[in-house]
Amino acid sequence: MAIVSMLVRRFNSYYASRPVLTTMITNAVLGGIADTVAQTLTAIRQRAVRKGGPNRDDFFAIEIHDLDNKNPLNEDLLIPSSLGLPPPFDFERLTRFMAYGFLMAPVQHRWFSFLSSTFPLKAGGATGQAMKRVAFDQLLFAPVGLGLFFTFMTVAEGGGRRAVTKKFRDVYVPALKANYLVWPAVQILNFRVIPLQFQIPFVSTIGIAWTAYLSLTNSSDE
């Protein structure tokens, strides 16, 4: 708790002096953590398959295998069951995720500030205002943000217009459906309870699992 308290004080201090830069660095670090999680899951899965499938002593491989097979949002496996060796850690992919988080932070900062000023939480009507923020966020920002994510990643990987179109055709709709299963509930809590300066870090922290999912989705057709 002492460490958490110290980190919160440091973050508040940096945010007070340079809010956008602080958010950019925080987003980049959390995006890097998320992609590391995604690459680790892929390595565990492929190592288990190379050994002939998950055995009963390999708890993590079994859980990953079962969850992937039960995934209702993608026809194909998110984590490929290749019989080859697990891929080496992709530092270029990690850099792309960190860069995306870094560059999107100013956009998120302006958007959250807009929502905060447009729908202020007033006594007696805070829940209704928070719901309006969630509606605006999920109906306007979420579809656009997801499109920006897949476009950025595809272009950063060297793809052109055809590759971007293919990415949207193959994975955009399943990812958007997954977004609506996860983020409305998270954003209700975020807008209703979390102070403004912590809203983007809160989203990014909760979003480690989500960004890991996007990382797997983005690379699933490779």
Structure, described:
The mean pLDDT is 80. The protein has 222 residues and is an all-alpha fold. The protein is globular and about 55 Å long. It is 79% helix and 0% strand. It contains seven helices and no strands. The protein has helices spanning 2-17, 19-50, 59-70, 91-118, 126-156, 161-193, 196-219. The protein has one domain (2-32, 88-219). Helix 1 (2-17) crosses helix 2 and helix 5 (126-156) runs antiparallel to helix 6. Belongs to the peroxisomal membrane protein PXMP2/4 family. It comes from Microthyrium microscopicum.
Features:
222 residues; Mpv17_PMP22; membrane; transmembrane; 79% helix; transmembrane helix; Integral membrane protein, Mpv17/PMP22 family; 0% strand
Content-based structural category: mainly alpha
Helix segment count? 7
Per the principal axes of the C-alpha atoms, what is the gross shape? globular
Secondary-structure element pattern, one letter each = HHHHHHH
Q: How many beta-strand elements?
A: 0
Domain unit count? 1
- Please state the average pLDDT score: 80
Q: Estimate the helix proportion, in percent.
A: over 70%
What is the rounded Rg?
19 Å
Poorly predicted ranges (pLDDT <50, ≥5 residues)? none
What characterizes the major β-sheet? none
How many angstroms separate the termini? 42 Å
List the SSEs and their pairings:
Layout: H1 2-17, H2 19-50, H3 59-70, H4 91-118, H5 126-156, H6 161-193, H7 196-219
Helix pairs in contact: 1-2, 2-3, 2-4, 2-7, 4-5, 4-7, 5-6, 6-7
Main location: membrane
Subcellular location: Membrane
Transmembrane segments: 139-156
